[in-house]
Amino acid sequence: MEYIIRKCTAEDADGRGMVHYQSWKETYSELMPTEYINKLRLDNLIEIAREHTDNTLVAVVGKKVVGFSCYLQNSREFVSVKPSSEIVALYVLKEYQGCGIGKALINAAKDELTEKNILVFVLKGNTQAIEFYEHIGFSFTGKSISQEVSGGTIEELEMILTL
User: Fold this and answer.
1) Who's near 4: CB < 8 A, 6+ residues apart?
2) What is the pTM of this model?
3) How far apart are CA 146 and CA 160, in angstroms?
């Protein structure tokens, strides 16, 4: 399968929003509180995509956005390793998973990041994502964060890749 990885533009907002929406429905319906999943709205995610194109890469097949990643040069304050950069989002449509797109998005983000430590938080129980990150070299730091969301509490596990 042929795909390209490139920086996100405002014209990618509809596609990126759709990937975000569909990925959440495909991946998190069993892992997140139903109330939270049911509140997701495509138009909200497209608006977020329009407002936040910086530090975002998209994967495109033909003219269709099939995945994206977002990163921070300097990770958020609550992480356990400083200095570090952070991957804050990585989504690939289910039908395009297993084709190397997720790894390509991570590698392209690594090329943009300046810190040798890269962190990511993964939802506890998301075995597929955990196995993916471990496969490309991430490991658990031992830190986790809990967050209240509509309908319950979620826990995210911190993982690190040191370049």
Assistant:
1) 59, 60
2) 0.95
3) 18
Dihedral sign from CA coordinates of 117, 20, 39, 152: negative
Strands 152-162 and 139-149: antiparallel
CA distance 97 to 127: 14
**Strand order in 4-7's β-sheet?**
4-7, 56-61, 64-72, 85-92, 117-123, 152-162, 139-149
Per-residue confidence at 42, pLDDT binned at 50, 70, 90?
very high
Q: How far apart are the first and last CA of the chain?
A: 28
- CA dist., res. 69 & res. 149, Å (int): 23
Q: Which residue has the tokens 């995509």?
A: 49
User: For residue 147, what pLDDT band results from cuts at 50, 70 and 90?
Assistant: very high
CA–CA distances in Å: residue 87 to residues 37, 42, 79? 22, 22, 12
Contacts of 146 (CB under 8 A, 6+ apart): 153, 154, 155, 156
